[in-house]
Amino acid sequence: MNASIQETCLSLLLAAVAAGLAVTAMGIPGSAHGSIAPSTFPTVIAWLIAALSVLNALVTLRRASGEGQMKAMSARGVGNIVAFLAVSTAYVWLIGQAGFVVATLAYLLIMPVFVCVVSPRHRVRLSRVSFWATLVVFAAIATGAIYGVFVELLNVRF
């Protein structure tokens, strides 16, 4: 498959998934009560991703005629993107089911492992105790920090 056609198709796939995530995010429970609703930021970010993906698809189609040296992505690379989108979609769904803290902690624990699994260069890290210790500490601190920013500073109530 031509690289520009492949990039256009992946951009449109990402736009469709992001639009679906935006619609799903609008259903995240919680009320505003004078503050920003819990669904606001995921919805805005998802729509922004969808819009930028469509823009990327249009730019790719426009420059397709003059390009020829760009290599198409392998089937494994496409599979990695689809897997990433599936995990990210599951994260948004899990926020509504299990809450922000549980979903974010799980996502921050899963994604670095996913990157190490799909990247032969980083796969060796999975055997190191220091990797797992750092991962758990980072995920816990980052989840707490994000929760603190949204709940305490921005007054978002879940």
Overall structural domain count:
1
In helices, the fraction of residues equals: over 70%
Principal-axes geometry comes out as flat
* Rounded mean pLDDT score: 83
SSE map:
Blueprint (H helix, E strand, L loop, with lengths): L2 H23 L14 H24 L11 H24 L1 H19 L10 H25 L5
Helix pairs in contact: 1-2, 1-3, 3-4, 4-5
Question: Can you tell me about this structure?
Answer:
Pfam families: TctB. With 158 residues, this protein is an all-alpha fold. The chain has one domain (3-153). Helix content is 73%, strand content 0%. The chain is built from five helices and no strands. It has helices spanning 3-25, 40-63, 75-98, 100-118, 129-153. Helix 1 packs antiparallel against helix 2 (40-63) and helix 4 packs antiparallel against helix 5 (129-153). It is flat.
